[in-house]
Structure formats: structure tokens, C-alpha cells
Amino acid sequence: MDIVLITAVIASLFLVIGAAEPLAARLRLPYTVILAVLGILIGSGAIFFLRTDLTDALNPIAEAILGLPIRSNVFLYVFLPTLLFQATLGMNLRRMLDDWVPILTLAVVAVVVATFSVGFALSWVSALPLAACLLIGAIVSTTDPSAVVSIFRSISAPRRLARIIEGESLLNDAAAIALFGLFMSFVMLGVPDPKLSDALARFPMLIAGGAATGWLTARVAIWVMALFRAHELAIISISVALPYLAYIGAEQTIGASGVIAVVAAGLTLNLAGPGRLPPQAWKNLREVWDLLAHWAGALIFILAALLIPRLLEEIRWSDFALIGVVILAAIAARAVILFGLLPLLTLLRISPAVERPYRSAILWGGLRGAVTLALALAVTESFRVPVEVRRVVGILATGFTLFTLIVQGTTLRSVIKWLGLDHLSPIDEAMSRQVVAVALQTVREDVARTTEAYALTHDIVRSEARLFGDRLDEAVKTAETTADISDRDRITLGLIALAGFERDTILTRVRERIISARMADRIISEADRLIEAARAGGRGGYQKAARRSVAYGRGFRVATVLHSRLGISAPLVRLTADRFERLLSQRLILRDLDAFIDGRIRRIHGRRVAELLHELMARRIEAVETALSGLQLQYPGHSEELERRFIRRTALRMEEREYASMREDGLIGAEVYTTLMQDVEKRRISAEARPHLDIAVQRGEFIRQFSVFADLDDDALRRLGRSLRTRYVDAGKVVMRRDSAAKSVFFIASGAVELSQGRQVWRLGRGDMFGQMAILMSKARRAEARAIAPSTLLVLDEARFRALLKRSPALQEAVRASALQRGIDPEMVLKTGG
């Protein structure tokens, strides 16, 4: 075929892609639907002009269109990795984890149920063998990521609904393709009869092997990217190779799922990339992948649509009935999962609740597309599949895909509107009216200053001011009609606005590199969680999310057990260092919020709401300070290094800003500016490196680190080591209760403890002791001790403590200091204790 014609055809397809987006916006139809319709028209036109006797002038063009090398492998090996990889890069993984149960239910369970529902329904109404019917069920059971994601991002769907749909469409391809491979082996002629048990035994390898391949490939790629961090184009080029190497490596090397490998690689880069790559390089990498995915998604739809006229050429009237059966069986299977299984999982407290309108939208949003057509094409290309099976598979898959795109796709926007999911809630409506009124007041003040500064014509200024004043009066009047908003709703609105400003501040600090990119994604996710918690649960939800942001999670507790019981320290080191940096970043951000409360929220919602928000901010800051204090007491040296690192990053940002200002003012040229910025970048790489955190302290070293045991010889230390018991305490747990009997003295080997007695509070860290005063004074404990960080305590019973006190001057001096701190006569304590 003439290469010039092929090039012209491909260039023309890009023209169609360029015209499809504004056409879709004008017709208010999904972009993918427009692409599919245009592809069908082009394919039908090519067949018509090639077969008509009207003219032969367009035959070369028609032959070039129909002769394009469109094969199933082109879709699966070229386009699918691009779409999956870009989708994973654009996902907010930490927010998606909140809905991992419904996502996995739809991505795995729903695919299996749909496969068997469609398969058995077809076997009852057709003469096809059951294996062929199940093959059709596997082909039509996967929702298409390019169809679903593009549509839900183009309409005003709630973010949670879009996350569930995107997560399902991203992950269900692996399950559907695995089932496709299983049933394909049962319908192929000349192939030894497969065993179902052998096929099912391959499933764990498909999943685990694909995940391991993707993770390993991504880790190697990230390591190479980090080496080339000064070369942005090299970083982007490596990222382009990553999904294809992962896909081919999994499929061809170990026989695992290439889809799972690409998803695992994308998730790994999504999580690790921001912390290992320069922020600007990461931003540009994401933009390049957005463009690649846009082209890939458009081409896959057009090229797949070009095949539809050929796939439907041999359609019969009886096939329409079979298409109807497939449609009904697929929708019914999806409805069973959404309205039967998901509510049951919620009732059993396994899954978060998914509201009924959301489930209805998900039901109608299960669109099929190019992936379904690619799998059907793979069947029609195989000479080992019986001719009638090939014909029916092509027709049913194509007919069902057209139904989902043309019927469901074109009406999805209306369904979401009918379900009320495209409207602002009453509280958001009230918020918008209040915000417009305040914003226009601010704009009027700014415009007045601007017109005065530029000395504009007085009459023109007065005329425009009158028009603007009318608009402002109308906005104020509209806002006042919602004056019956309850204080509770105003507090909720204020918290939503405050969390939104917190998120914007985080993004600003990340761009300025004051907050490291490593922490950016985690902190932004916490801000998103605050917004949704305030929207769903008001003040209580916000406070719960705020407490969660400083709490030690389950992963931290597991890491502590691994360190303390098995001596595996790496997970605890990483989580502790992350927690240090996250708390420092939170403290920085929270101190910026008071000005926003006074400058904005007070004007919208009044003094009472502003004062309450100030109080909530004070509690959040206190919680962060307490958590940070616990770590500082536990690892004082590491805390100092992190603060020094923060100061260095801030200074570098200010230095960079000064050089940019000097260049804009013409004080330095481009050559000098480039040299200075290269020097800044070298120093920034050094400043970005996180200081090492050493937590691997052995038991013997635990005892020697206490100054109270400094005067003991080696034999005494060994005897003491045999007498001390080790106790591990999670953050927030009570170590010593008020009014309990005094039987032991505690020494803090690692962690931090807060003592409270009445209104007095003391915080103790590594090397400190507590519990000795009650023993020496022979009284019940008057203070309560609570761990404010995961802590390792060494416990000594009363008898051994008294014996040790008599022969250790250092321990006696520590007791005196502790008594003075509490306002107690130290000599009386020692005398009583002796």
C-alpha cells in the first residue's frame, strides 16, 4: 500500500479528532460517542465508495482506509497500555482507597457475575455451545476506561462517583481478559482439551506475576529517572517506555497479566514519582501523558469504529434478539451487584455506603468500547475458532458496544441530571450566594482603588460604578434571602471553605518547594478528606478527619511490631521519617489559616462562626504540636536536622526568587541567570535529601543511654538488664492510671509520654523515668501517664528500684530533680523512700 496514502489517512484521522471535541461540546454529547459515530461513518463510506459503480476516483482512499493495519494486537499492545498508565497517573490513590471495597467488587465480582449471566442466558436461547456463550460474556463484561473516564470527567458528576467508576474501569480489564483467555482455549479447534482446574490455577500467577512485574519495572525506571533528574526530557522518555516494557514483560516473559503489570507500574510511579523527581519534571511528565492518552483514546475509538461496518456485514434478524438478551443479562447482572451485594456488604460493615442515586448512575454508566471490540476482533482473526462462533461473537460484541455508547452514553448526562447528581446541595447553593456577595464587595473596593490610581474619566467611572452597584445590591439581596441558614450549616460551610483554602495553600507551598514533593500527595489527600468529611458530617466529621490526620495508623503499629519483635526496622524508619516531615508541614500550613478566617470567613458567616473556627484551629494546632513533641522527645537529633532542612529549602526559594526578579529588571543577563539557577538546583538536590533516622537501638544500649545508670559498672548493668521488663505501648494508650497502686517505675527507652496531674502537664522523652514519686512516698498514683508516640518502656519493680536507689547517686540526683519539678521537698522524698 502506498505509504503516502497511509500517511494522509492517519493525518486526516487527527483532523477528525481535532474536530470531534468542539462538535461534542456543541451537540452536548460525549466526546467518545462522537468519535465512534464518525468512525462508523468513515468506515461505511469507504465500503460504499469501494463497491459502488458511481465513481472509482475515491477507490484508492477507500482502500487505504480499509487497509489500515487494524488488528487486535494493535489495540492491546499499543493503545491499551497508554490509556491504563495515564489513568493511574491521574488517580488520587489515597482517596480511592476509601472506596476500595466497592471498586474491587465492581472490578472483579461484577465481571465474573456478568460473564456467567450473559453466557448462561445465551446458551438457553441459542444453539451456541456453552463455552462460546461464556466467551461472549467475558468479552462484553469489561467497561472501557477510555469511554467511561472521558464521559464522567466531562459532566458534573460528584467526585466520589467518578472515582468509583474510574477505579472499576481501570481494574476490571484484567479480570475480563483473564476470563477471555480461559474460555478462548475451550472454543479453539485443534487445541488439546484444556482442564478447568489448570486454567483456574493460573489465575494467581496472572495477578501476582503481573503485579510483581509492574512494580519491579517501575522501581527500576524510577531509579534511573532519579539518576537523570537534571535531564527532564530523559525522564519523560523513560516514562513513555515504562508501560510497554511492563506489559510485554508480563505477557511474553512470565505469562502473567500485562494489564495488571501496567496498572501496578502506574500506581508505583504515582506514589513514588513525586518524591523522587523534580516537581517541574513531574508536572510536565503528567502533561505529556495526558496528551498521549488523549490521542490514544481518540484513535482507539475511531479505528475500532472503522471495523464496525465490516463486523456487522453478516448480521441476521435473529441476531438482534441475541443482542437484546446480552443487553438484558449484562444490565441485570450489574444491577444484582449494585443493589444486592453492595448494600449487603454495607450492612455487614465491610464496605462504605454507596448511595442509591450513585448506584443507579453506576448501573447506567457501564459503557463498553474499544477493549470489547478488540477482544471480539481477536476472536474473528483466529482461524482456529469455528466460523459461526466468529460471526456471532463479532456481531454480539459490536451490537452491545453500540448500544452502550449510543443509548447509554448519550443519555448518561440526562440520567445524572434526573438523579439530581449534577446540582449543588442546598448548603452549597447558600454558600455560593454568600460568596458572590462578599466577592463583589471586595471587587468594588479593588476597582475603586484601581480607577483612582489611573485617573480615569470621572463620568465613565461613575456610570460603571452605578451598574456594578446594582449588581452588588442584587447579590446582597439574594444572599439575605438565605439568612435563615442555621449556625450549624454556617459552620459546615466555613469548614468546607477553610479546608479548601488549606488545600490551595499546600499546593502553593509545594510549588515554592517549601513542602517537599514527597509529602505533597499525602497532605493534599488529607485536605481532600477534610473537605469531604466536613461536607458529609459537618463539624463532627471535620474533627474526626483532623484527628485521623495526626493519628498513628494500622501500618505504623505493624511496623512497630516488626521492629520490636523481629528486628526489622526499615518500615518503621520510613513511616517515622514520613510522620516527622508531615507534621512539620501541617504545622506550617495551619498557622496560615487564621488570617483566612478573619479575612474571608468572618465577612461571609459572621463573628460567631469565625470564633468557633479559630477554636477548632487552635485544637488542631495543639494536636499537631503534641504529636510533633512526642517525636521530638523521641528523636531530638532528627527533629533538628529536619528543621534545618526546612530553613535551607526556604532560603533557596527566596534566593531563586531574587535571581528571577533581577533578570526581569535587566540587572543580569540570561547567561548569568542560567549559571546562578544551576548552582541553586545543585544545592537544592542536597537540601532535598532527607536526614537519616536511626532507631535500631539494642537492649543493652537502651540501658546505657540512661544517665541515671551512668555510675553503674558492667556487672551491675547486666544484673539490671535481667531485672528490667520491656513493655511496648501504642500512641494514645494509658500507661499509668490515676489513683492506681504504685508497684513499678518506668524508664522511657524510646517514644514519649505525657503526665497529667490536675492542670499540670509534663512531657517526657527518651531517657526519662516516671512513676517513682508514688513509690517513694508510699501513696497511690496522683498522675496519669499516656503515650503520645509509640513507646518502648523498661519497667522495674518496687523492690529492685529501692535497692538500686540506695547504691546509685545518679539515680538519687534524678529523683531530687523530679521532686523539685513537681514542687516537692526532695530530701523528704528520699528520706521517705529510704
From TrEMBL:
Membrane topology qualifier: Multi-pass membrane protein
Keywords: Cell membrane, Ion transport, Membrane, Sodium, Sodium transport, Transmembrane, Transmembrane helix, Transport
Keyword Glycoprotein appears in the UniProt entry: no
GO CC terms of this entry: plasma membrane
Compartments (UniProt record): Cell membrane
Residues annotated as domain Cyclic nucleotide-binding: 708-822
Superkingdom of the organism of origin: Bacteria
GO molecular function, one term: sodium:proton antiporter activity
Pfam families assigned to the protein according to its UniProt record, in alphabetical order: cNMP_binding, Na_H_Exchanger
GO BP of this protein: regulation of intracellular pH; sodium ion import across plasma membrane
SMART domains membership: cNMP
Stretches that traverse the bilayer: 6-24, 31-50, 74-93, 100-122, 128-149, 170-191, 203-226, 256-277, 289-308, 320-348, 360-380, 392-412
Protein name: Sodium/proton antiporter, CPA1 family
Organism of provenance: Roseovarius nanhaiticus
